[in-house]
Amino acid sequence: MDIPNIQSQAANLPGLQLSSVGQFFIPASASLQERRPRTLKHGDTFAVFDHNGDVISGPGSPEGIFHRDTRYLSHFYMTIGGARPMLLSSTLRDDNATLTCDLTNPDLFDESGKMVLEHDLVHIRRTRFLWQGRCLERLLVRNFDDQPHEVSVELAVDADFADLFEVRGTKRSKRGRRHPTITTKDGIELSYTGLDEFRRSTSIRFEPAPAKVTAQQAVYRLQLQPRQASSIFIEIACNLEPGGSPTAAFFKGLRDARRALRLSSSRAAAVETSNDIFNEALRRSVSDIYMLLTDTPEGPYPYAGIPWFSTVFGRDAIITALQTLWLDPTIAKGVLGHLAANQATGVDPAADAEPGKILHEVRYGEMAELGEVPFRRYYGSVDSTPLFVMLAGAYLERTGDLETLGRLWPNIEAALAWIEDYGDRDGDGFVEYGRMTEEGLVNQGWKDSYDSVFHADGTLARGPIALAEVQAYVYAAFSAAALICRKLNRRQQASRYSARAASLQFAFDAAFFDEALGTFVLALDGDKRACRVRASNAGHALLTGIAYSERAEAVVKTLMEPSSFCGWGIRTIPSTEARYNPMSYHNGSVWPHDNSLIASGLGRYGYRKEASKVFEGLFAASTYIDLRRLPELFCGFRRHRAQGPTFYPVACSPQAWAAAAPLSLLQSTLGLTFDPDNAQVTFERPVLPAFLEEVIIRNLSVGNGAVDVALRRSGKQVTVEVLDRRGGLNVVSVS
Questions:
Q1: Given the DSSP bridges, would you call strands 75-80 and 187-193 parallel, antiparallel or unpaired?
Q2: Four-CA torsion 401, 327, 678, 545, nearest 10 degrees
Q3: What is the C-alpha to C-alpha distance for residues 214 and 616, in angstroms, rounded to an integer?
């Protein structure tokens, strides 16, 4: 992700200029946790509403309807009789298809102060969803009084056409030109031409036609008899020509949206457990993943998160695909295809691009088009490229799909060439990063805050920097390349990549393992000095298998110490380190995706009980969180009895790799692996966390076969029972 919260921090560091640490921060002037917004997404459009279903403009407000990195609606405020309705409830459907807000009237008075409508007599239900660049809504207004009433409903609207980076806090010295608002008897059109000379328009249409339409407002005067209801339909279209009836668009879109969600999620295995609360969390996780999926020409692609990262990110999508690979391999196939189609082919310093490199981020807004931010098509992440190859190998192991891997092989080979030719900047065998221009990201690993890589005394590391987890990913990439080459009968290349992996493993152990720390160091700086800092990064060495088996016990012990494991999860750095701050973005917080990857590593080395402990901590955190939805991160304060976790103010929610974390944790504790060549599913020494007595997985597929299985606690063991088998798929349980 881009660098957050650095403006105020930079001010406290003498001699440090904001431009030297990166200017693409997310200000914490408005807490998303305080707002607890309601979010919707479809394709390249997402929306952030308050609990009433309104969009309230103002400094620091993240609310609005956004399309391709521009806010197309910045104000959408409903009043009844001039007063804001009172909230009854605000809910998202379990599948995220619709947002429903139930509201009622407050006491309403006329100009003389006489009450004209007592509270709680009029009910308003707002039903809203996004579909193909449109926000479609039905307002159902019902009079529950035994007397007739005239009810005035006012809808105030505006659009600032702010670039997403403006909404995030970046100041611009110049903006484009706003055009006069066009009104008709049943609609309002707002438009803006940016400095990029692209015209952006928001068309708002109402049905039936309001009693009054101005440039800022539509007003209805509804005559409601006792128990009578009246419907208002609204269509908000981003850069689209007005279509047919908003009423028809609402019902057709609602049907198509729900059908599309059912169709996409039907590919996945289904999970049900003995814990109803965990079942809720799982349903929300799966729904969030499929909401964040966006169809590309190459297949489904998970956008990273709402509100700040609803776009293509390489690293995030690859990790999400790895986390969900056991559940739905189609996601991984789409991610591999889309990233291959957008792989860098030349050197472009402004984009931090080099041949073979895999995308970091894509943006479509005005500021990206003008080069005011470097992310139009940006390649400034050091780990996306090895992770791409790692995912390709994991996809092959999961599916046996040699046809897809054969098509991808030129892209895989180009990525491996980048690792060897460009990634290893000084020829020492390790992959380092360093931005090519002053506008690029300073730190280019997943912990990309300006102060996330430092020495034991807190001094920031000087680049080029070789991160511990990046070497682990490179090891996995070489190992995956060897596997793919063997399957493609490229035996000479397979031997070469196996040798590269073994050589890197030996060099990594020698340079990164620190006996005194009991773990792998965070990084090597530009002078090859070790950053002797304990960090969660070391857990990623377990994930990929680069750690020698004799190192695992010490690394696990360090990760699970109270200074690191706070009760909710493993902190990014433990409380013993110089820059520890539980409220920071990367220096002491807890990231669900980070913990899920570490838990996968714990399971790989046989530490399933420790993986189960991480699983329990994150599940416990989710029980205190709105919608049971794990956010991007939360603060790393120690867990206390009968108290929930402390939230991070600008954490995205939903976030793809956070949503996928519970699914990945389940796989890790169950020891679930696949062998497509032998049509086999294996559960190796499965463990159930304390909050689960039973797990049932249906439609677990390999090739043309599928099984339904039940795992149940039996004393200290977990038994595996096959409930149904289709296509001759074998299930093996190893105790």
A1: unpaired
A2: 90
A3: 54
Parallel, antiparallel, or unpaired: how do β-strands 75-80 and 108-109 relate?
unpaired
Q: What are the distances in angstroms from CA 671 to CA 326, 608, 687? A: 11, 8, 8
d(CA 222, CA 496): 76
Rounded distance between C-alpha atoms, residue 101 and residue 483, angstroms: 52
Model pLDDT for residues 483-535, shown as the tens digit of each residue: 999 999 999 999 999 999 999 999 999 999 999 999 999 999 999 999 999 99
Q: Over the stretch 186-206, which tens digit does the pLDDT of each residue have?
A: 999 999 999 999 999 999 999
Lowest mean pLDDT among 34-48, 456-470, 592-606, 716-730: 34-48
Distance CA 591, CA 583 (A): 12
| pTM assigned to the model | 0.94
Who's near 665: CB < 8 A, 6+ residues apart?
595, 596, 599, 611, 614, 615, 618
Instruction: Map tokens 């659009």 to a residue.
Output: 159
First-to-last C-alpha distance (Å) of the chain = 40
Structure tokens, 190 = 């707002």
What angle in degrees, to the nearest 10, is found between the helix axes of 549-560 and 608-622?
30
Longest dimension (CA), the chain: 91
Query: CB neighbours of 146 closer than 8 A, spacing ≥ 6?
Result: 226
Task: Sort strands 64-67 and 70-73 into parallel, antiparallel or unpaired.
Answer: antiparallel
CB distance 390 to 471 below 8 Å: no
DSSP E strand stretches across 408-547 = 466-467, 513-514, 519-520, 523-524, 530-531
User: CA–CA separation, 117 vs 34, rounded Å?
Assistant: 32
Q: Could you check whether the bond before residue 329 is cis, i.e. omega within 30 degrees of 0?
A: no
Report d(CA 373, CA 394) in Å as an integer: 34
Query: φ, ψ for residue 210 (rounded to 5)?
Result: -65, 165
Alpha carbons 197 and 690: distance in angstroms, whole number: 59
pLDDT for position 61: 86
Dist. CA 334–CA 325, nearest whole Å: 12
Burial letters 609-636, b for 16+ CB under 10 A, else e: ebbbbbbbbbbbbbeebebbbbbbbbbb
Structure tokens at 450: 């300006």
Are 346 and 418 contacting, i.e. CB atoms less than 8 angstroms apart? Answer: no
Distance CA 321, CA 84 (A): 43
Asked if omega into 148 is within 30° of 0 (cis), the reply is no
- As given in the structure block, the two tokens for residue 370 are 């003008």
Number of other residues whose CB lies within 10 A of the CB of residue 341: 12
For 447-459, the pLDDT digits (tens) are 999 999 999 999 9
Distance of CA 267 to the CA centre of its chain: 20
